[in-house]
């Protein structure tokens, strides 16, 4: 019986892996521009971390976590998201006593037992940033601008940035009572999940994907109207900073995010055209999370992007996939293989992506192979080239060929690649 990858997982094979390299490069470089440095946390944590940090009333904790008991009878969970792990690391290493804010980014696999669909898997990958130690609305704006800058660098211009404030523990408590009072008379029209949790966490009803629930609570009181003066001022400052920096956004009263730790600023990015689930990522402020994880009352804000979702949204990888190599060395006669390998090694040592055939293909088949690899230039090596100590370089686009001396070949190739 053939063994296959578990449902909801998949292999990333060449040439698709080149897409991931490109995406990761953009993510890392952009984060570095903003002063964020990489953190790598364990793939599994104590289950309690996510129960306390993410929230026991969330779908993630109730339905989606991969939890197991190890040989020492400890409950461990494959991480379903990255923020709680970062908060745990901050507390465990007492980094709140050092230089603040602490600014991190992470890239890695997450795990949720979810129904697989387009862009949604049980093992999936997230890029995220976290900033701990500042309650300034301007770092909220910085985090959002960083997210937008990533999208711009990837050429994704048709995104929609949704923004809201979910308030603080004081004004949200009052709003919670208003919302429960509004929902109670129509609770029988809600989906089973919302009926069971609306008393404990009524904001989750606003976040429900079931259209019947939205119809049932039409006209509900918005959290924006219940914000205290401090939260309203914070939100206004965030919006002004985004306006000042040319970031377009849409105020969205339905946006409350799905995790219990969010406070104040909340945001999501949607890209139309990638399927029913158009959100590629989002985040917000979580001022109580570090304290919930056993540390002091340190504020924080961050976001996560689904990398599979981003790759779905990108449609500019065709050329990238073809450019597996820049220069192909075509050995026309088998007795010159050793010279071909030497030329290949010199090219690679000079930082030029180069390759050759190792299966005994004919000269014609080698040219077809070079074209499939996306080579811009082909170095032809045959008897005439060896006897007269030159190399023939063929431009695969223009079909022009020139003779170049062995000693000049590296410099010539570099110049040609710069203009091609």
What characteristics describe this protein?
single chain; 420 residues; alpha+beta; BirA Bifunctional Protein, domain 2; Rossmann fold; 2 domains; 8-stranded mixed beta sheet; 5-stranded mixed beta sheet; 20% strand
Describe, in plain words, how this protein is organized in 3D.
With 420 residues, the chain is an alpha+beta fold. It folds into two domains: 16-168 and 228-313, Bira Bifunctional Protein, Domain 2 (BirA Bifunctional Protein, domain 2); 323-419, Anticodon-binding domain (Rossmann fold), CATH 3.40.50.800. The chain is built from 17 helices and 16 strands. It has helices at residues 16-33, 47-53, 59-64, 83-92, 137-153, 169-183, 192-197, 203-206, 211-216, 229-244, 289-292, 307-313, 318-322, 337-349, 363-372, 383-388, 409-419; strands at 37-38, 44-46, 67-69, 75-78, 102-111, 123-132, 160-165, 250-251, 263-270, 279-285, 300-306, 327-331, 354-356, 377-381, 390-395, 401-405. The strands form three sheets. Strands 1-5-6-11-10-9-7-8 form an eight-stranded mixed β-sheet, with helices on both faces. It has a five-stranded mixed β-sheet with strand order 13-12-14-15-16, sandwiched between helices. It has a three-stranded antiparallel β-sheet with strand order 2-4-3. Strand 3 (67-69) and strand 4 (75-78) form a beta hairpin. The longest helix is centred in the first third of the chain and has 18 residues, at 16-33. It is elongated.
């Amino acid at each position: 019986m053939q063994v296959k990858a578990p449902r909801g997982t998949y292999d990333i094979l060449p040439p698709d892996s080149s897409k991931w390299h490109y995406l990761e490069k953009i993510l890392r470089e952009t984060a570095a521009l903003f002063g964020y440095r990489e953190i790598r946390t364990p793939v599994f944590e104590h289950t309690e971390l996510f129960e306390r940090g993410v929230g026991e009333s969330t779908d993630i904790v109730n339905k989606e976590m991969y939890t197991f008991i190890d040989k020492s009878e400890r409950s461990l969970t494959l991480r379903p998201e990255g923020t709680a792990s970062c908060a745990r690391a901050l507390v465990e290493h007492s980094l709140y006593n050092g230089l603040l804010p602490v600014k991190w980014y992470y890239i890695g696999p997450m795990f949720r037992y979810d129904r697989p669909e387009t862009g949604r898997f049980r093992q999936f990958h997230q890029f995220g940033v976290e900033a701990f130690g500042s309650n300034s609305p301007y770092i909220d704006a910085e985090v959002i601008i960083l997210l937008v800058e990533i999208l711009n660098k990837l050429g994704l211009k048709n995104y929609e940035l949704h923004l809201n404030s979910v308030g603080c523990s004081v004004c949200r408590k009052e709003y919670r009572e208003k919302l429960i009072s509004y929902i109670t008379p129509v609770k029988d029209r809600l989906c089973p999940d919302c009926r069971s949790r609306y008393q404990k966490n009524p904001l989750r009803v606003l976040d429900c994907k079931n259209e019947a629930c939205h119809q049932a609570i039409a006209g509900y009181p918005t959290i924006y109207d219940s914000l205290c003066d401090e939260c309203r001022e914070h939100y206004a400052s965030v919006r002004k900073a985004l306006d000042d920096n040319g970031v377009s956004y849409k105020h969205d009263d339905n946006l409350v995010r799905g995790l219990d730790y969010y406070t104040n600023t909340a945001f999501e990015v949607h890209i139309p055209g990638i399927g029913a689930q158009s959100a590629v990522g989002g985040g917000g402020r979580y001022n109580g999370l570090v304290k919930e994880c056993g540390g002091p009352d340190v504020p924080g804000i961050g976001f996560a992007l689904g990398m599979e979702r981003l790759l779905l949204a990108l449609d500019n990888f065709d050329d990238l996939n073809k450019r597996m190599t820049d220069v192909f060395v075509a050995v026309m006669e088998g007795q010159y293989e050793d010279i071909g390998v030497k030329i290949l090694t010199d090219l690679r040592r000079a930082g030029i992506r180069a390759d050759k055939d190792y299966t005994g293909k004919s000269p014609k088949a080698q040219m077809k192979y070079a074209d499939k690899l996306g080579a811009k230039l082909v170095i032809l090596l045959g008897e005439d080239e060896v006897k007269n100590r030159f190399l023939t370089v063929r431009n695969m686009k223009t079909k022009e060929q020139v003779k170049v001396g062995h000693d000049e070949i590296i410099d010539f190739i570099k110049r040609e690649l710069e203009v091609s």
